[in-house]
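Standup notes
- HV: blocked on the assembly model, inputs below
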Amino acid sequence: CKKDYLALTSPTQLTTDNFYQTTDQFQQALIATYQSLRGWADPGSWLMGESRSDNTRYDFNPANRAVAILEREGIVDWTNDATNTQTKSKYTADYAGIERANIILDQIGKANIDAATKNTIIGETETLRAFFYFDLVQFFGSVPLNLHQVTGPSDTFLPRSAVADVYAVIVNDLADAIKKLPTTITFPQSGRVTVGTAKMLLANVYMVQKKYADAEALLIDVTQLGYKLNANYANAFSTTNKNSAESIFEVQYQQGAANGQYSSFIYNFIPPVASTVVITGTATNTLNSSCSQNVPTQDLISSYEAGDTRLDATIGIIEGHYDASANFVPEALKSIVSYTTPPGKVAKIFAKKFLHASTTAGQTDDNWPIYRYADALLMLAEAMNEQGKSGTALPYLNQVRTRAGLAASTQTDQTLLRTIIVHERRIELALENKRWTDLLRTGQAIPVMTAFAAKIKLDPRVPANAYTNIDANHLLFPIPSTEIQLNPQITQNPGYN
Amino acid sequence: SFAQKITLEKNNAKLVNIIKAIQEQSDYDFVYSSRMIKAAHNVNISVSNASLIDVLDLCFKDQPLTYIIENKIIIIKSVDEAKTNKLINKTIQVANVTGKVTDEKGLPLPGVTVKLKGSTIATVTDANGYFTINSQNGQGVLLISSIGYESREININNQTNITIQLTEKNTALKEVVMVSYGTQNRADVTGSIAQLNSSKVKDLPVGQFTQRLQGQFAGVKANINSGRPGAGLSIQIRGATSINANNSPLIVVDGQPLSIVGGQNPINNINPDEIESFSILKDASATALYGSRAANGVVLITTKQAKPGKTQVDFTAYYGAASLDKGHVPPFMDAHQLATFMNEFFQDKIKYEGYVNPVTGTATVPAEYANPDQYGRGTDWLGQVLRTAPTQSYNLTVSDTREKSSTSIVAGYFKQDGIVINTSYERYSVRANSIFKPTKSISIGLNLAPTYQIDNNAQLGPTDGSRQILSGALLSSPIVPAYNSDGTPVNQASGFFLLAMPNYRLIAENQNNVNKSLRFLGNTYVNVDILKGLSFKTSFNIDMANFVNNKFVNQIAAAAFNAPPPRPVSSISGAYATETYTSWVSENIASYKTTIAGVHNLEVLGGYSIQKFTDYTNSANGTNFPDASIPYVSAAGTTTGTSGKTDWSLLSLFGRVNYNYKQKYLLEGSIRSDGSSKFGFNRKYGVFPTVSAGWVVSNESFMQTVSMINFLKIRSSYGLTGNNNFTAGGNYPSTSLIGGVNYVFNNTLVGGKAITQLGNNELTWEKNRQFDLGLEIGVLNNRINLSYDYYNKLTDGLLYQINIPQSSGFNIVYSNIGTMKFWGHEFTLNTVNLVNKLKWNTSLNITFNRNLITKLGTQDLPIMPVNEYSWPNIQMVGQPVGAFYGYVTDGVYMNAQEFATQPKHTTSTIGSVRMKDVNGDGKITLDDRTIIGNPNPKFEYGITNSFNYGKFDLNIVMSGLYGNQIANPLLGGDGHNLDGAFNLYANQLDHWRSEADPGNGIVPRTLANTTALYRTFNTTEVYSGSYLACRNIALGYTFRLHNNRFINKLRVYTSIQQAFVITNYPNFSPETNNQTTNINGLSLGVDATEYPIPRTITLGLNLGLF
């Protein structure tokens, strides 16, 4: 009686002692693992995956120098330090997902669940864990390998593991997942990991490791799974066409306040305005919000070929004027194609790709892309070209070009075709957070960014210290300073001390 | 009149028992000293229907004692004394003197000894203070004495009816003090205990009793964290600070430990007029019996019980007006100053950054700032949100004592309007305390106290804190007029380029956040005196409350710091939340008290206690309102709801032994074992033992010759106490909890679950080892009393929510991480300066508290601010808790030469802020941050002076701190924002503009992208926190109403609370701290622009009826 009297557990929450037993419980744990993708997506994926590159920057908002805005600008300007909470959010989200996956993988072995269900759960979980580790290793380099459920504070102080060891875990997880996941995909998809996701991800890993033949084999498999490009490029991002046949993997959102599952990416990307109604169709005041980010650069706009239908689908113009307090007042949305700013008007460029109507201001329905079939096709073309099979590569490249309304390429010179594929990826996947990792993968980050910086720094508004440290050290982001403070076994990446 | 007949049959019986038997058969009372009666022989008696005198004579035959009978009282004396006086006189005299003894206030004093000087004739006053004594011949001198009062001698001089007023002794040494589970004589106490009777602080017209404690006790800091109406104080005993577990002392009302719910000090909603006395237990020995939760000290509160005497009705009322002390307003720019600053800002922007005004397309200063001289002081936005606010209080007390019962009822109403518009606090309270004594040995107590309070935007409104109404008003542009030309209020309080600010007056006016709570405290007990000295008490206490919060945010209120109102319809939201908690305690205690051989005094106590706390919460939230016409969730388009429950339990066994020899050598030992549901599976129990000893040196015979020293005691204690109070982590910090984490598949919500809190099975009690050495001395006829305490406390297994590497997937876990040391010196000096027509008493206390972190986790790693902008407290081994961590400002780079030769930050330029290169690596980085302030004062003090002249009395209470620092990183960061975003501190006008116009060398230039470092946390945001506050000046006048049938007492007074504050702190009140009522190491000494403490002028009235 005495013992029972003190043995209280939360009446409103389950504990680890009574969870992780049934199929439903493992499904719920898996759903929570998917949920970590949202922390990965916003803002880390676009700040570090796109705005760090030559594709997008931020628009200047001199009156709002809030700390969070300064931190975001620091990532774009390459001046971020280890205390930056925006880069930390990616690290945090990746590891939250990893730990949720670890628990499932540690516990499911002894659970009494039928084999097929168990395999599917394991396959999805391993793919997600691999995704998070792949993200970490690309952005932070060698990272701690946390592969088992944490049961107390003493389990949490891990050293960094070598990059090769992290990749070994990723490849291992994905290879196992490919074996365990159902071999076919049902369309329309639900938003879950499929065997296509696992194969695409592993192919991407092999591309980074320059194992082109392995990547090619997997990507050929991907083309056999029933994916196809939408007829219309813009339709790939439409909120009425989620998880379409072109989608290999995307982060899921649903508009509406009741469930709290909405996204709000576009509100970061448009300028601060007193009313957003002209832009989004619904009204809210964003004057003091974190706005005007992920703004396409002139460098990106200029690199579109004439007649490319993707320009209008990707980048838009908000036309307006300044009011007496120097606040921007939007008047109309304009197409960027052949646009010239009328006298007395101000034109703001923005990431139109993610602008779709929603019922409530600030609560959008937009999913966030991770892998599209076009990505697979271009990667396959690249894998073939890198192995000297330029001719075989062309049909895959041209599927993408033709859809964009462009002429098919006939280039078979390996070096020239390499440049064409890289450019095609930049345009096709613009604002989809591939540019930075593509620059890393192709070894072009330093030359491309150095050339970009020389041009962009002609703008006097760009801070004097921006882009002053484009070097090998800064191709990685810093390990969050709090990790260094807490764990003496963790060392900082060079260049951030 | 000795008609009663006694029948007795006893063999070898103790005289005491015989006396009891006689008492039961007659209506006579006995007066005797228990020590004397022990010397009596046993008696054999067998009488039937004998007269009282005969029986007494039989009993006292051959005894060393004799007796006299006075006015139905039988006084027993030793024969020796009687013989020496040669005045044994059993004859009933006829010349009776009758009289009444009262206290200073005219209240009857029962039980006072009245003795005819030089004789053995004596009596005691009855329940109404009346006495009758035989004066023999109408001459002689009456000696009137009572414990705790100055003895008086009255010359009878043929008077037959005398009223005698006794004044309370200035020494508290003989007073009875409340201790854990009982009372003790002050002289016998071995622990460190301070007690305050509410009569001493009656003229502080305050809503919370804790406010009356300010400056009263050494070692007790009662801090006003906020001037919000109804806001309480935090009480900090001996600098108690744990880094994150709760640091508030345990509050025990009439034996009932109160629970902390919602972070509020649990006595805040108790009407101060219900409280009789307040006892603060500071050291381990005093607190030990509450061992488990006593690490931060214990506050024992006794509520009013009826006093012996006739039916008494008292009425008290006061009315006051509160307003901001204009001498303590953060010095921000007026319109002319801001226009001048912005003019220079744009001139420099044009000169250095090629600025072109986007509106005009020209490189000119915007029209609004082109001509600063057109502006004067402009709009006082702070004044727009403040007002002079009334406070009122009414209390009616009725008390009545009957033969077998007594009842006291206090009914009160209190209302305080806040000085920020649209904030108020209201309280209705009743307390009924009754005692029933069906027989001499059984008493049954029942205390019932319901309270209803209505809080209107006070505790939950957005008045204070960063970028809320108060700080927002300061940061608003004074250039913008408050009203449009048509008389309507403006929506926006910022001009060209400035960050859009709402009109904070509109924000304040549109707040609708009402919290209503109904709380019920009830205690009932039965006390049975089983045998002489042995008693058993069983009690059941309940504390239950229901909170209802109704909140509605319309389009104007939704604006806040964001863009100006009105916000879109989608910003409308509503919420309705309820919380109901029940906390019950059941206790059973047996105690035995005896004296052996007249010299060994022994008291033993043992008991057990069970406590259970259960809390239910429900809430409904509404969004998607079509409009703001119906301010309830029912009108919402989308409604979500949730409900929850949480609980904890505590199981305790405790015991205590007190022993003293001739009241000279005192010894006490106690132990308590507690089991708490909050801790890990095998770590639930904690054992907390204590020993203490005292030596009353002045009771030694060798001290009798030292006539100057009236009292001298040395005492010491050592013991363990514990802490299981988490402020975070809820009630289940040791278990891993799983919570809902949802996602979407097929565009449909799917429910997921993940671990939302990582548990720690090893979690256990935080333990405190405390040593105390105390000295108490009374000299010059106790006109000077000094008490001194040294303490040394070591907190081990500090309960804390520690950060763990994020690579675990979690960021925090609850753990016992570290060790802290506390030590200090406490002095209290009470003096009676003047005793004649003008009476003057002074009470002074001063405390020197120190603390040091000696161990943190396994690796002694500091708990640091996350970055340069985060909350600035650091916890670090070798430093006191909560030290401030930031950059040291070293002015600006005044010229190119300085810039070229000195360490730089990546954003530095000529004219930008220059931080000290603390680590000497030649550049300014995060690692150049260092300890730049200490929120712990060097000493704390309080002085109370009371004067009495005829019918006038004057009481002045002052208190303060010395040597602490206050950080103001939030208002500091915004008020030092040189990017042209806000109104600024006026001294920012003197900024660097060029080498030729370098400003004051402290404020840097406004060049874009160079300004952020200046508003990271640095020494310009750290201020001296020393202050001396005059808490209250009260002047009273008591009318003499000798013959009024209805009014027996009338006193009027006026007072000024917070009359003045002497400080160098430039912002609002230096004592307002971070909003929480807990003194938490993580936020110690940080001012987030709290609700200022107003100055209140009050008129009051105390009326005694019948």
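- HV (later): unblocked. Chain B touches chain A through 99 residues (CB under 8 Å). Residues 84-94 of chain B have pLDDT under 50 and may be disordered.
- Next: hand off to the docking folks.
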